[in-house]
Amino acid sequence: MRNQPKNRSVADHAIKLDSLSKTYRLYSSQTDQLIEVLGLRRLGLKPRKEPKLFSALRNVSLEVPAGGRVGIVGRNGAGKTTLLKLICGNFAPTSGSISVNGTVQALLVAGNGFNPEYGGRENVEASLQYNGLSRSDYDEAIADIEEFCELGDFFEQPFKTYSAGMQARLMFAAATAVKPDVLIVDEVLGAGDAYFIAKSKRRVEAMVNNGCSMLLVSHSMPQVLELCEKAIWMDAGEVRMEGDSFDVVKAYEAYLHGTITSHSLPSSAASNSTASPHAEENTDTEHSDQLDLSESSSELNAASAHASGLSEEHLGALPDAVFETLQEPRFWPNAAPIALPSVKPPRDFKFVARGGITQWESVEGLKLIGATIVAEGGETNQLISMRPAKVVFTVQAERSDTFDCRYGVVLYDHLGRCKLDGLSGCDTFTIKQGEVRMIEMVLNPLQLGPDEYTMSISVHAYDRLEVFNGTPRYDLLSRSFDLTVTLPDSLRPIEAEFYHSAQWNFDGAADGTR
Amino acid sequence: MSFAQTPVSLRSTIFSPWVLIYRSKKKLIEGVVVDLKLRYSGSVLGWFWAFLFPCCQLAIYTGLYVFIFKVRPSGLSQFDYVLMVFSGLVPLLAFNEALIMSIGSLVSNKALLLSTVFPPALIPLRAVIVGQIPMLFGLAITFALGFLMNRTGWEAVIFAPLFWLLMIMFATGLGWILSLITLVARDIQQGIGLVLMLLVFLSPFAYTPEMVPPALKAILYLNPMAYFVLSFQQLFIYGELPDLIPAVGSLVLGVGVFYLGYFMFERSKHSFFDYA
User: Fold this and answer.
1) Gap between the Cα atoms of A161 and B248, Å rounded
2) What's this model's pTM, rounded to 2 decimal places?
3) How confident is the model at residue A405 (pLDDT cuts 50, 70, 90)?
4) Residue B275 distance to chain A (closest CA, Å)
5) ipTM score for this prediction
6) Helical pair B154-184 and B78-103, crossing angle rounded to 10 deg
7) Of A122, A132, A134, Cβ closest to residue B118
């Protein structure tokens, strides 16, 4: 298996797992465990209870091609970490085979060999040594780490004097200083502040770009989309889905958010305020507690255990002024009036992304039945930065009722990062079953920079943004449409990711823009 | 037990532990250096502790026996007796420290099991090496004392390192077995202190076998450490080669337990690591 000599030239795969299974035996007491493990049964000793068998992995097959980057997603306890442990080689599978080509570096536990009493430099040296770096490569690696983690004078201080963030930085830097053929990463990228996460990402990207194969376990979907080309969704020890990371992430997100809604749903206020049984799962999806509008949630339904667990009373105690409102007053930064062709309510979905429409689980009430994108020339998904465009979609009522709605349109860039989170104000209307209502989100102009985007469209019951997670969702089509934004050649010199509008004051006086 | 494929160690021979050590010698040596560095970092006296600690330890034991218990075997002066205590105590203490460190080595280095480059068998071995290093100063003191008193001869220069090596092999073998079991039952770590204390006081480091009543002599030889202690005493105090019984005993224990430990470790590590 992995101890084969380095015959990298002939290897077409970095990691290959063939129908791998791992069964753990769970004993009811330490004594039983000891009897079993030491083989004392043969001496006539019997455990009080037979062990329970726990299948951590069942029949998992997987191949990471040389230079390939594969992500593993799945809920806690799905067997992701067990899988990585087995690949490392010191843990034996119950059945099946593992074949690994090249040197493997596993970032399963941050801080391999770190001790609080020792200084940063000493800890790094120890860690590099454990990771198999030879002394001749130390100096370069340590200089690199010192530069990367920006600890300054603290680098020489005992590790225990570091803040948690500093510790995480140092451990991550040390773990990634080794340059392996195969990199196995388990959630170590989530440490530190936003600045450091971005820096960590770049570091991993650089490693991967140098031809290193990677197997990444992550709960951050943007990260999987960004770093991996293929993904595997594991569930209860089995591979539930395997394929293009975009498709797998879409399916997994739909599953993940579907299960939350179905538990915390029915539209009464009381049930909104009770934490869902899956609240613990929510914390995995790493989102901010508040709906942070500047950086924003990477998914439309920013799942946050805290927010969904907020009670009505708790919110009621806050003054109204602190609640976020959007699109009020209406905001048209473009000096020119809108000149977009009007369209009939769309009855089908145009510009569907690869992988098709992914509909998240939602409540009965309103459903999206059509969507399109309109630019100055008519319906198209080829848009131009700083020119007007609109997203038009149609909802159909599944029952006759009066609804308070909030609509959402979210755009993700080609790396899966959320670049626009457009949430409407309240739309109150009475509608009969089967009737339709057309909604337009007009962008005048489109302020996003050139890129390829995917788009989600959603319909929610209206409530405060602070309890957005807990509000019932009538429909959500996740990452289901795609569009391209380009920049006219004449504007090439001012290419940017986002063209922000602002009010400029010249010598104290507003410039007159509304 | 159900460990289906353990392809690494199926072709074990008597060379395999040595091949493993030879192949990973760099990692092992650097590991020992790093471990030692870490051990003394953060203390004011630093490396000096490696020297100070064994000196104090020897001084305490020797003082106890010479000035308080006032033991004096026939035919030995007070200085001779100090040398005798040293020559028995030094290997005993080195063994104790090495064994205690290696027994806890897997438990305290669980994360290393997830490392893909550090062979797990080196973890207890490294701990043994690190553990016995302070007592190398004790050994040096014993040599100096023995030569000053003109009691130690050339035999010691050749054979003391050899017996020291056998003792380390003995500790390593035990370390391999016990560190694995400790993963399942931490009781080993708790109990080993008591067992080692008993072994120290049952070892003839402060008395000669002649001082033991004939009826109890058998018990003396049930103590594995007695063979090492007797061998070292003969080398250092009497300037002669060890008798056959202590010499053969040391050889059998050192080599036998080393291989037993290695093969047990390689054979059953996978079933134990699941409980790490």
Assistant:
1) 53
2) 0.67
3) very high
4) 9
5) 0.71
6) 30
7) A132
